[in-house]
C-alpha cells in the first residue's frame, strides 16, 4: 500500500487505528481453545468485528513464534485472511528485525515477498546497511524504532551527544538519507507526550506508528495535539485494550465496541485538525 | 550451559570456534536440494563434519524464517539434532530480538523453554525492560549487541555523549546492572580491531561473541591480541568461510578442513595467552 492510499483510507474511514494482534493463548477466552487453530480463530473473530473501525492490523511476531511451527501457521493464515478479505487494511509485521546486510536481505524477502505484508518494524542499532535492504520493495515500508513506549526507552534513546542531539533524534535525522516519507515510518510511543513536538521538527511529513495507548497509559489526545500533521501522519495502535477487553464469549463484540470508541475519538481529532 | 562448562569445553577442545549455520538454499550444493529437507540435511552434514573443531553452533534465524513453516521445521530439527548428538556444544540462536517487556518475555519463553537453546542475541536499543526478561533462565545467556561487525555500526554505536562515552560503551556499562558474566555476553565484530582494548576495559571478564572473521575481513590474531582474557572469553564465529568453502559434493569435507585450520590457529592463540 502506498502513502496516498493509506491517507485515503484514513480519511474515508475516519480512523487511524491499528489493532495489535498480540494473540496470547493464556489470555483468549476459554472456549476458543477448543478450536483446531485457536490463534487464527481468535484473530479472525477480532478482525471481522473490528475491521470497520480500523485501517491497520499489527500482528506481533513474538506471540506467534512462541508456538513454533503451529504459531507460524496461524500467522500465515491470519495474513492470508486479511489480504483476501480486507485488502485495504495496512498490515504491519511487528518483528523488530535488523541485522547485517545479507541477513536483513533475507528478512526482507521473507516479510515482503513471502508474507507480502505492507510493512515491518526494524531496529536501528546496527545502522544503514541493516535497514536499507528493506527499502527496495515497491509500496512496502520500513517502520524504524525511534522513541519507544517502554521505560527502557530512557536507557539509550535519550542519550545526548556532544551537540545536544539525542539518539532518537539522530536516528530520525540520519535515516532520512536512507528512505523517505513514502517508504519509511517511525515508531514513537504514545507515552512520550510532548516529545512528539521535537519529533515533528525533524520528520514533519512522515507517518508515525504509535503504540502505548491503552494498557501502557498513553493519551490519544496528547499524541494528536503534538503529533498529527496535515495528512494525519499517525497510526495509533491498541492491542490489549481492544483484543482482551473481554475474555468471555462476547470478546469480539466487546472488542468492536472498544475499537469503535477509539474510532469516534479519532474522528473528532481529525476534525479538530481540519482533516 | 554455564560459564565454567563453556570454559572447560574450550580448554579441552583447544578451540573457541562457533560455526554459523546461515544455511541459504541458493548457496548449498546442488545435490542437497534433492533431499526432503535440504536445510536440515546440509546442517547435519556440516555439524557432523565440524563438531570436533568447534565448541558452538549459531543458526541465524533469518535464514530459516525465509522459508516460513518449512524453514522453522528445519531449525527445530537442527536444534534437536545438536542437543541429542552434541550436547556439549553451546547453541546460539542468532535472532537479534528485543521488544517491550511482555513481548521480550514471549521471545524468552520461545527460545529458552521451547527450543532450549543456550543463548539468544538481543538488540539493546529499547533498554532494560526489553533485555531483562531473557535473564531469568538458569544457565541461559543473553548475547547483547555492543559493537557489530558491519559498516553501519558506525552510524550510531560510535556516537559520543557529552562525557565522551560512546554508545556501545554505554551499552556495555549500563547492561552490567542487568546481568553478569555468568548470563550475559556481548557481540563485538572481528572487524573492530583495537576497539577490543576499549571493550576489555569495561567488560574484562565477559565472553564476547565475535562475528566477522573470514567473509567480512576480520583478523583472528588481532581479535585475540586485544580481546582474549584469562578464560579465553571469546567465541569467534565463522559462517560463510566454513559452510560455503565448497559447493561441490565434498562440501562437508572442505568445511571440516576450514574449521580445523581455524581450530589449529585458535590452539596457538590459546597457548600464546597461557591457556
Describe the structure.
Chain A is of the alpha/beta class. The first copy, chain A, has 12 helices and 8 strands. Chain A has a single domain (3-272), classed as Aldolase class I (TIM Barrel, Alpha-Beta Barrel). An 8-stranded parallel β-barrel of chain A has the order 1-2-3-4-5-6-7-8, surrounded by 6 helices. In chain A, helix 2 (38-50) packs parallel to helix 4 (68-85) and helix 2 (38-50) crosses helix 12 (251-272). The longest helix of chain A is centred in the C-terminal third of the chain and has 22 residues, at 251-272. The two termini of chain A are 21 Å apart. The model of chain A has no long low-confidence stretch (mean pLDDT 96). At the A-B interface, helix 3, helix 4, strand 3, helix 5 and helix 6 of A face helix 3, helix 4, helix 5, helix 6 and helix 7 of B. Chains A, B: It catalyses: orotidine 5'-phosphate + H(+) = UMP + CO2. Chains A, B: Keywords: Decarboxylase, Lyase, Pyrimidine biosynthesis. Chains A, B: It holds the Pfam family OMPdecase. Chains A, B: It comes from Leyella stercorea.
Distinctive features:
275 residues, 8 strands, orotidine-5'-phosphate decarboxylase activity (chains A, B), homodimer, RibuloseP-bd_barrel (chains A, B), pyrimidine biosynthesis (chains A, B), eight-stranded parallel barrel, 15% strand, decarboxylase (chains A, B), TIM Barrel, alpha/beta, Orotidine 5'-phosphate decarboxylase (chains A, B)
Amino acid at each position: 500500500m502506498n502513502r496516498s492510499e493509506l491517507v485515503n483510507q484514513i480519511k474515508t474511514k475516519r480512523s487511524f487505528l491499528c489493532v495489535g494482534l498480540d494473540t496470547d493463548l493464556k489470555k483468549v477466552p476459554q472456549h476458543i481453545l477448543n478450536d483446531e487453530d485457536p490463534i487464527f480463530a481468535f484473530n479472525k473473530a477480532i478482525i471481522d468485528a473490528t475491521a470497520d473501525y480500523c485501517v491497520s492490523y499489527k500482528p506481533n511476531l513474538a506471540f506467534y513464534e512462541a508456538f513454533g511451527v503451529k504459531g507460524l501457521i496461524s500467522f500465515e493464515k491470519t495474513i492470508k485472511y486479511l489480504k483476501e478479505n480486507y485488502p485495504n487494511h495496512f498490515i504491519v509485521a511487528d518483528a523488530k528485525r535488523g541485522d547485517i546486510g545479507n541477513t536483513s536481505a533475507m528478512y526482507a524477502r521473507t516479510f515482503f515477498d513471502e508474507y507480502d505484508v505492507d510493512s515491518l518494524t526494524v531496529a536501528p542499532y546496527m545502522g544503514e546497511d541493516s535497514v536499507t535492504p528493506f527499502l527496495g520493495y515497491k509500496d512496502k515500508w520500513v517502520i524504524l524504532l525511534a522513541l519507544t513506549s517502554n521505560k527502557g526507552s530512557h536507557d539509550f534513546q535519550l542519550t545526548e551527544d556532544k551537540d545536544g542531539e539525542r539518539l532518537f533524534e539522530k536516528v530520525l535525522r540520519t535515516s532520512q538519507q536512507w528512505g523517505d516519507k513514502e517508504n519509511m515510518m517511525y515508531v514513537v510511543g504514545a507515552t512520550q507526550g510532548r516529545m512528539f513536538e521535537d519529533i515533528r521538527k525533524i520528520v514533519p511529513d512522515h507517518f508515525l506508528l504509535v503504540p502505548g495507548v491503552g494498557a501502557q497509559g498513553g493519551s490519544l489526545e496528547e499524541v494528536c495535539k503534538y503529533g498529527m500533521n496535515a495528512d494525519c501522519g499517525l497510526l495509533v495502535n491498541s492491542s490489549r485494550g481492544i483484543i482482551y477487553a473481554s475474555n468471555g464469549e462476547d470478546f469480539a463484540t466487546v472488542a468492536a465496541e472498544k475499537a469503535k470508541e477509539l474510532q469516534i475519538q479519532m474522528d473528532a481529532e481529525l476534525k479538530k485538525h481540519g482533516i
